[in-house]
Write a structure and sequence with these properties.
Elements: E1 7-14, H1 17-27, E2 31-38, E3 41-50, E4 59-64, E5 77-85, H2 91-100, E6 105-111, E7 114-120, E8 126-131, E9 157-165, H3 168-178, E10 182-189, E11 192-198, E12 207-212, E13 226-233, H4 236-248, E14 257-258, E15 263-268, E16 274-279, H5 301-304, H6 307-312
Parallel strand pairs: 1-4, 5-8, 9-12, 13-16
Antiparallel strand pairs: 1-13, 2-3, 3-4, 5-9, 6-7, 7-8, 10-11, 11-12, 14-15, 15-16
């Protein structure tokens, strides 16, 4: 098998698709590249935000669960999602923007040698803006030119994904001995030890940061929590090799799953975190032209015949507040 190429996407939960759409497009300036539904539960929206065309490694997605309760933060969790920006010069812009829109943030800090701003969305989603000033490795994407955020300040992709676990050695083993990541070093975060792993070309777009924490109980997910993190596989042929391999290692798994815009494999590591391996293609332009991405409700062909039923259960989304 070829090495995993880096981060593919992160999928989180929201209780309010309309407010979510406003926050991630009008405040963070990401592009809504696909408006679809959860293929396993078609009564809920699945919204994809990304760079201008939804390149793998730039996607942050949300499932809407209107009745979702609050998140009780803890271990066994994907505890922070980072979003890359071009350079240090963009950081003051983001501080001003967060203040303008009353977004809770912690100011500019240095995390593992990179300047960053930790912040939260309207539901408490744990996020971070991280500068690419000193970053090398996996390339970022290109912000959409019609974004309310200037292109030279815009989000160019996913940055390091943070996992918080009570038994880090078990997650370390899966990352290195099963998934082929390499350990890059360690740093301290609020007195907790964090171990850095990377894959592929490395850098922010290919890193997982594992935080050891034995003082908290397991997270109870709700609105503002993360459901899973996905990693990039080149194509379906490579993914099928991973399916066979993961099965041979004794992991309970989904087998190959057709998601239309990509193919996937899901499994859980020993601390209970859901990992997905996803192919780079076919991509979001399979059923919409670049200019119109995200403008209509897109349904894969295998549920298109249920469009009337599906649309009847969804509340229409306004693209502007």
């Amino acid at each position: 098998m070829k090495e995993l190429k880096g981060l593919h996407h992160v999928s989180a939960l929201t209780a309010d698709a309309q407010e979510n759409l406003f926050f991630y497009t009008e405040i963070l300036g990401m592009r809504l590249v696909k408006k679809t539904v959860n293929q396993d539960e078609t009564s809920m929206y699945h919204l994809f935000y990304a760079d201008e065309r939804g390149n793998p490694g730039t996607e942050l997605t949300f499932f809407e669960i209107p009745q979702a309760g609050r998140t009780y933060e803890g271990t066994h969790s994907i505890s922070q999602t980072a979003l890359r920006i071009p350079d240090d010069e963009a950081l003051p812009y983001w501080l001003e923007r967060f203040d303008e829109f009353k977004v809770a943030h912690e100011g500019i800090n240095t995390v593992n040698g990179r300047k960053a701003i930790s912040f939260r969305d309207f539901e408490g989603q744990r996020l971070q803006i991280v500068s690419d000033e000193t970053n090398t490795g996996v390339e970022g994407g290109r912000p959409w030119e019609k974004s309310p955020v200037p292109q030279n300040r815009g989000i160019i992709g996913l940055g390091p994904i943070q996992l918080t676990v009570p038994r880090p050695e078990k997650t370390h083993y899966v990352l290195t001995e099963v998934m082929g990541f390499s350990q890059q070093g360690k740093y301290k975060l609020n007195s907790q030890e964090v171990t850095v792993f990377s894959t592929g070309k490395g850098g922010s777009g290919a890193e997982v940061h594992v935080v050891e924490n034995n003082s908290l109980s397991a997270e109870r997910p709700g609105r503002g929590s993360v459901h899973h993190v996905a990693f990039r596989v080149e194509n379906e042929e490579e993914l099928q090799k991973w399916v066979t391999y993961i099965q041979s290692r004794g992991f309970a798994n989904s087998g190959l799953v057709e998601r239309y815009y990509f193919r996937s494999l899901y499994f859980r590591e020993p601390n209970g975190i859901l990992f997905e391996l996803a192919t780079d293609g076919p991509g979001f332009e399979k059923d919409e032209p670049f200019e119109a991405l995200g403008e209509k409700l897109s349904l894969p062909p295998y549920i298109e015949n249920r469009r009337e039923e599906i649309e009847a259960k969804l509340k229409p989304l306004a693209t502007k507040r």
